[in-house]
## 1
Amino acid sequence: MTTRMRSEIAEQPTALRDTLDSLLPKAGEIGALGEQTRQLLFIARGTSDNAAVYGRYLIEAHAGRLAALAAPSIATTYKRKLDLDGVLAVAISQSGRTEEIVETLAWAKDCGAKTVAVTNGGEQSPLAQAADVALCTVAGEEKAVPATKTYTTQLAALAVLAIGLGADVDVDDLRRVPEAVEKLIAEPGDLEAVVEGLLDKQGVVVSGRGMAFSTALETALKLKEACYLHAMGLSYADLLHGPIAVVDADTPALLVASENSPTLQGTVALAERVVAAGAAAYTIGGGDALSRAGTASLNGPDLPEWVAPMGLIVPGQLLTEALARRLGIDPDAPRGLNKVTQTD
């Protein structure tokens, strides 16, 4: 039987095309807000927070603006008012109904920020209604609890945000993403070997750096949610500062990189170090250089680094769904989780 999660993974090319068609015309509205602001503040939780990590790297590397991740508790628990004049606050929520995120965006506006919402909840969602500009993704209803198509379309919306803010990128690269995702779904690489390698493991370290860091965090989250693995998502720079000690024969590494990234060489070196220590290093992306250094490899997209995360996550999604089924877990409805999470 095909799981809902697997069906929704397959819907991503269409969701991405529809989202880009809908949102690219809004780049001008984003540009107008950009003229009134200097830096960005991302407001999100969970999977949306991982999307925000991509947004932060993208904006800083290609739009030349300082970006940061908000601590919503400053608004909702500590109730501190900050000077956010010159700030563009970008709130990300799949449903657009998470009260903490809506409240924090309203707080940011009250503190002087201009505001943008990224949501699949539609124009009438509370988050979209609270924002100066709403970037509503067109993923359609997502029934499986682990987010797949809502995540990749969030990344697409953030790419449009970067374009509106004057990023030094080629829009045609973004238009190629749906086709690249289609190819990865059809040809994910040595999926069965990676599933077999993780089948009897209790934990895994998932690592990437730069643009791929968001993919490492999101892949780790998916493996936690749907496979109940103790999956640790880390930048490889942080991993080398001590946590690498946990990587051994019982705790493999899953390493992620774009083929044309300045972080690729460091990721290859990390894979070689892991294998030399007697542990397994499974890889996602990074081309031949990374796949040769690892134990078994999943394919990456043929895309420039700035849009590669929209493809890099797909093998991680497929791995999560396949591993969950092999473990006898229903990936559509992991224990203890709901589609909309409310926090105080």
## 2
Amino acid sequence: MSKPAVVLLSGGLDSTTVLAIARDRGFEPCALSFDYGQKHEVELRSASAVAAAMGVKRHEVLHVGLSEFGGSSLTDDAMEVPVGRTHDDIGEGIPSTYVPARNTVFLACALGYAEVLGAEHIFIGVNALDYSGYPDCRPEFIEAFERLANLATAAAVEGRQHISVHAPLMTMTKADIVREGTRLGVDYSMTVSCYRADERGSCGECDSCTLRLRGFAEAGLVDPTPYWPR
């Protein structure tokens, strides 16, 4: 019988690839998505479609009101999502699309879910190479959270559970991620990575689209997700 693993699933390229990796490693993925007040809430439909297509038996969507705090162009209507930045620009500083404490909150919820399920493994799609400079996407953060996880739960303290936090994309380029997902049979047409995505598709101009399109190009593949008409 496969061991359960909690997989954080946004519906984007990275998290979908991680879901495929977890399944390929023999785990039974239990997907966890978040409605956190993001403007690009269409990604949640993608998450549901991906989970269904990949045979996920349990997919939970939690409502976490991070938009109540604001402080990010992904959740605050008074802030504009940056567009038109080059790949080099994206690597400079922490952009306005950083959502304060988002991955900390998400992993904390995943930890609670894992303890209830008796799952010792949590998968997250953070990446320290082709990313937007977010502090909660670094190896140091993942290592620190894993230490915290094994101090913070009854199951761990009582010796019934040891939590491992897996970030299999951490040192991969976006092209590497696309190649690995393609090898594992991921249908990227179902995924949405765009920070401004709506019913028309993805904008093709935000940081996330820029990184995604470059990844497909460097992998020698065509991105099958729909983009806004030009």
## 3
Amino acid sequence: MAIGASAGAVEALLQILPALPAGYRLPVLVVVHVPRDRGNSLVSLFQTRCRLRVKEAEDKEETCPGTIYFAPSDYHLLVEADGSLSLSSDEPVHHSRPAIDVLFESAADAFGTGLVGIVLTGANQDGASGLKAVVEAGGMGIVQDPATALVPTMPRAALAACPAARQADLDGIISLLLEQTAT
């Protein structure tokens, strides 16, 4: 699973990630737009609130089910063909590094139909073309209902680029995730 969020991300993720049960069978890859001049405190914030292992993604690391991987500040997070992670300092995308599109597009190539891509609240277009790539690869696209997002710009852009994506509020997203992994 790949999740992308920007403005309002912490609040949305604090509802979704702690709801995932111990033993969750998918790795969870998360990109949040974090300014490069600020340290990434997301791991310490979520470690005590989640039943899953929470860590910062490392270059060349293999993904493990039931682990939440946060992209480090100022690095793009990508998924290699073998499912391992890689980090890149390539140019920002949509003024962001890490960028959601970079993660989603590489994860779509690696995981295809096994990928769930989720775009949450945020203030730019990042995630829209990446979510389209997820759905075109046969994966499931989910977008936070813009009416429930703290900042609806990213969800609106994702829905415009990918009308086939499922739209839900945060509780609905949690339900979809639990259903998706129950099979």
## 4
Amino acid sequence: MPEQTLPRQHQDHQPGSEAAMTPRPQSAMRDYPAAGKLRGQTALITGGDSGIGRAVAVAYAKEGADVVIVYLDETQDAQETRRLVEAEGRRCLALAGDIADQAFCRKAVEHAVEAFGRLDILVNNAAQQYPQDSILDITRQQLEKTFATNIFSMFYLTQAAYPYLKNGGRIVNTTSITAYRGSPQLLDYASTKGAIVAFTRSLSQAALEDGIRVNAVAPGPIWTPLIPASFDEERTSQHGSSVPMKRPGQPDEVAPSYVFLACDDSSYMSGQVLHPNGGEVING
């Protein structure tokens, strides 16, 4: 029997609110030892209001970057992320909108460049998931929404950001452990995450001639708002119990992978995927 790792809880709205979680995820990067690795740069992070996106935004700010966070409608969470970024002495622009909308993606990039004069890093992180017990339960509407949010948006944002990223820019995509081991209740979500791996590898080869490095991170079971917003109370309470470390990871434990891939420490890497997943061995 899976062991309980968290209090029982559920949220009815995707992609979920960090403010409503118990306990709150650790995403403020309080013990992170910054070294100015992104000083003077600008990063755009989707899903930057909470969870992994928030931790990445704060880590980048600690490393000296100004940050643009893009979120759907979680205004309270976004305001807290902005507060944390500004507490590090960096600027933060928060933009609400649907990344499944290509026009919004173009406007988000334009606003970022207008506000900060440059764009150096794009983090394609936002995603949604809707568990179903059978492939027969996945409607056309759900399938199109999942793909539009999780992978089409990466094309839209990358296309908009590409001219500004040339000659030194970096792209970091969020895929998932489900791309490698599968997930019977998340068929469409896992499929988009597999597509993100292929997107990362293919784009990395195409973008090198323009001086852009493209990598990805494949988190395992991390404690983010998407979990209580996706699963019932029982499954949420057992989140992370199946991995070797027997617990869910915290966003603070994932964000350093995004720092590494965004800074010069990873200057000889492109087309690669990092796996902060609680000890599960994944080949790929």
